[in-house]
Specification:
Number of helices: 3
Order of helices and strands: HEEHHEEEEEEEEEEEEE
Strand content: over 45%
Helix content: under 10%
Shape: elongated
Distance between the termini: 53 Å
Structural class: mainly beta
């Protein structure tokens, strides 16, 4: 419940129910080519409940504090419900043909990211007399959840120069990731979308001894080509250089 007339005791004794979900994940792990190629693939499904709320009009309208002449002590009661369904595939492949080189590929496919129930949407009457859920309401059942890309993948390559060579111990990394376009709005009439985008990054890392302890250093260039992109409705990070040092005592 909410409102200026709500007491602390009422808020404590009538909390909003938690969002909760249930689902399953079925997968397999495998190794091929003398385990130079390993990976896993899984199919998942998750249903999340209590995502939406609506005003409990009967209880609110009948409340004594809402019927007096003082608007400063009004209260509002809510009902919670609604569900979202997510269903897709996760894939990971690791290719290591030699000790010095490895490549990691991940792929996520989310064909279903659907709002399946939403009790907060009111019924409206069409010209032909039919009563249907308001098609202009936000989060209409059957619509895709906003900010839920259908396809994502990433590829990361790393090579470490063998010890004893001139650049022994130096690690080089190069990666690429992709995210497909998404809807930004949660209403059928809102056609705004964030475009798909590719991001590239590269890194150098090297470890050496300082007073007998290991110091690991790395330099990473993110968004290598300064791609303009959006994660949801927020602008993504521009090109950046990050240096990191980790000293093991």
């Amino acid at each position: 419940m909410d409102g200026a007339g709500t007491t602390l005791a009422e808020r404590v004794s009538n909390p909003a129910p938690p969002r909760h979900g249930d689902g399953y994940d079925i997968g397999v792990k495998f190794g091929l080519l003398d385990r130079k190629l390993t990976g896993s693939v899984s199919w998942f499904e998750t249903a999340r409940a209590n995502d939406f709320r609506q005003t409990d009009s009967d209880r609110t309208d009948a409340g004594p504090r809402n019927l007096d002449a003082d608007p400063n002590n009004n209260v509002t009661w809510f009902e919670y419900g609604g569900k979202r369904l997510s269903r897709g595939v996760d894939l990971e492949l690791i290719w290591q043909p030699i000790k010095a080189y490895s490549a990691v590929f991940t792929y996520g496919w989310l064909p279903t990211a659907e709002i399946t129930e939403n009790p907060s949407i009111a019924l409206v009457t069409l010209p032909d007399g039919r009563r249907v859920l308001d098609p202009n309401a936000a989060n209409l059942p059957g619509s895709r959840s906003p900010n839920a890309p259908e396809n994502k993948f990433s590829l990361w390559n790393r090579y470490v120069f063998p010890s004893g060579s001139r650049l022994g111990g130096l690690g080089l990394g190069l990666g690429l990731s992709y995210t497909s376009d998404v809807a930004l709005g949660n209403m059928q009439s809102d056609r705004r979308r964030a475009d798909s985008y590719f991001l590239a990054r590269t890194s150098l890392d090297y470890s050496f001894k300082v007073y007998g302890k290991n110091l690991r250093t790395s330099l990473t260039a993110s968004n290598l080509f300064d791609e303009g992109f959006y994660r949801g409705s927020s602008r993504g990070e521009p090109f950046a250089l990050t240096f990191r040092g980790t000293y093991s005592f």
